Amino acid sequence: MAVVTRIITSPPATILPEDWFSKVAPQLIALLDGNEGAELSTAAAQIIMFGVLGRKQFGSPGWNVFVEPLLRNLNPSRKGTGVAGRGKTEGTDFVDLSEKAVLVPADEIFVTLRRMSSLINSTPYPAQTKRMLDPVLPQLWAISCQSKGNQQTEERYSKPARSLLHTFLKLSVSVSKLHLVIENLLYEGELMTAPRWRYQTTSDGHLQISAIPLGHGPQLPELDWNEIQVRSESLMRLMTASCTPEEISSFFLELLGRWLQSTKSAKKTEVLLRAEDSQSGNEITQLLEITILQKMLERIPDKLVSRVTQVYELACQILDPSAIQDQPDDIVAVALSLLNLVITAPNFKRSSLKAEVLQSLETSLDILSKSERSEVSPTAKNLTLLLRYREAIDPAEEDAFVPTDRQVEDRRTYKLALEYITQADNPPPIRSEGLNLISGLVASNSNVLDVQATLVLFSSLLQDSEDFINLRIVKLFIQLASKHPKATTQELLEHYLDAKETSTTDVRLRFGEALVQVIERLGETFAGDIAKRVSETLLSIAGRRGHRPKTEAKQGRDQRLRDMKKKQAEDAWGGDVPDLSDDLTEEEQVKNEILTQIVEGWESKRGSEDVRMRASALSVFSVGLETNISGIGPDLVSIAVDLCINVLALEREIEKGIVRRAAILVVLGFVKALDAAKQSGRRLGFGLTDQSREDITRTLKYVAVTDNDGLVQQHARDVIESLEAWQLSSMVPSNIPAMEPSIGRLAGLTIDQDRSLPSVNTKRPRIEEIE
Question: Where is the composition biased (Basic and acidic residues) (predicted)?
């Protein structure tokens, strides 16, 4: 898939990216629409989102070709170019609005929403998702509210738009985005600015975009109180499903602060000159904000106050001593209620308040207590006493643990990440964002993470069938291994060994891949108990004596079931069941029989370990040898080499070819590790004796000639060549200076050097006369 993506998304040097993508786009869009099946639709979405939009050099051309036409189908006011746009307006820069024409037909809106859903829900790319949906947030909101009880409109248009909105708010919810929705709560199209158009539902339940004739002047959206109530309810449901309690609380406090500010401004008697349209627009927005504020108080009161600090700041802002007397009783009552929530919170401590803030608050409460305002004075007096004697009410409060702001934020992040990851109905971008949050906590070494619980979570996610989750989880294992290597390797080994026989071979192989990358990440620290435990587990899996009783029982049941079905078929046919498959040549039949024998032989017989797992274990051990052979130790290395030689000599079946390949690679890894240690000057404390080398070479030469697997033969010849090269290099001492042009000495052999070389520093020979 990666190779295909690279080929399709790499324009030749002689062709402009715009021209290349313009030619490729129709084919990819046809695949995206599912004309060739769901798998190719997912592949096309992956190519577009990652290969095109995810690459910086092709982001702009790819956006104009693939995304901009979709956005213009939802918002005709956008200007851009693309190949997937509407046939009527393609190649033109203007639209004839002299009559009530259909700018975007219903079918194109439906196809647009389907394509956007395919691109987003089939790929795990939060950044591209936010970039794609952000420009059409008001339009998606308007489409999601168009059903009005019509089932066809709901299924074809409103439901997909609402799903996209849900994904966008989960990924990038902020106060500004929610305010944008409120400002466009009654959005029906572009009614004020040219070109003017609006969404229109036909009598048969289809949704289209129609132009507003030029004779009709600009107008604000009509205020339909019933429509305001319906859309307010829809926004409440959307916020509850998409936003966290902290986000809802922040939005509520922001709206409340705006309302309080508007009440202050209403008291000022000033003459302001404003445009009529601007005045009407602002008043409509204030009305919508107050309506949403009231709905939040009615529908979700339990989620409105989750950030005590923000509530406290807002209450102190209202109860400013310099302006407390001018505040009306209803606003002061709201502030006192908020302050009561803060003081009675379990984690509130009087000592945590700043001295000047505490003094200002006590002054305001004292002023209110002594005033003759019957609605607020008793409450202010009670809060004064509660604030003064708060620590006396709870004597243990002084020594109670109060989490820091960082710990509170990390806990919220962790909770949100778990919600994103574990909810099965979340689309891939949201689950990917949850993994990003977990990755950030791991990278910052947050103490909110329970290492063992996090490892259990990662292990459960690694059993997921989604490839993007598996790849991300492997990276998270690597991150966690750098800080907690022992716990991480132990978790991976338990699932790789699968002593309880609860996992499939594919799942176990995923843990093996994670274990390989963790070993490579540990590097020189792969030693001691960690290396010993990993090596022993790998060798126990790779050995021929592994027994899996549950697997054996399951294989017996499957075999009896196959025999029963075969007998039933023979009884039905009155003899042998005829072969109804396509006619094959004799050569093809032989190949199929060999492949069938190999595949069937992989699964263990008589309850022994699966051949694929044995080959995987040897491959992982080979990586460990090359990573840090000294950390594994001579005993385990010797056992591993003996095991591999026995595999090559005794397990000659055709289905055991992958095990023999892995065994030869272990021997090769052993030779490479010895050579690397010699080149770096490390002393391992053990090596390869001449007798052992001769035994290994003799076995490999036999395998290179007689094995029934061509790749095994080639590997054997490569290892023989490496052994001979290592033998020659071992005869040369490793401490020779790099600039010396000749061999100074050979181990175990004294030779005379060429005295003409400048490196030889000897005296001239003396001639003595002997009588």
Answer: 549-570
